[in-house]
Amino acid sequence: MKQLFRKLKRAADPYMGKYLDKFIWRFRHLILANWEDGYLDEQCLEHPHRKMIVNSISKRADTKTILELGTGSGINLVNLSKHFPNISYSGIDINRRAVGIGKKYLKDNNISNIELIADDIFNIKRMKSNSIDIILTDAVLMYLDPKDLPNLLSEMLRISKLGIILCEQTSLGGVYVDHWRHDYEAIINKFTGVKGLTLQKITDEYWDGDWIKFGFLIEVEKELV
What we know:
By secondary structure, the chain is an alpha/beta fold. The protein has a single domain (2-222), classed as Rossmann fold (3-Layer(aba) Sandwich).
């Protein structure tokens, strides 16, 4: 079933772009049974790649707020809150069921410094400039069409005070293979107000498959206003 679904999606992606992916994720629970299994279990919570995100945040002692786009049920934020309990976290995801599962988990585990919001990540355009210290994505932007990505990245940089952290796959010039491997370096270097850009390769210590070949933790530091 999953293989057939992937073939149909691959055929439709060039014509429907982000709208197809938004529809699939919004109604994923109706398309794939038990899709949420394992999203908040210990194995997923302790996935090695999350260590890279933790290490990145640990270098920013002045971080007080973090927003994750495409947070799912908030597993990255749950993990970060264990390491940095004094930070306030928020996460946005278009799938209300995923957000609902996350909210129940937070309540059951008495986690009070994380807020999960069911919304479209493109609606961050309503947020004030420099209102969040760090904005994070993890395997989310790879489902955005190249024509939509620059605008979202621009908004992320506008809203963030310190910078953004992206755990994504990237290729020179941008490549589509079931998902997008955008050329983040080329896109981000066109923006003003960027102080620094670093790409840390994801190795087999942290992940497997295509993530070893194309995965990077991309850290963008803003010039202080």
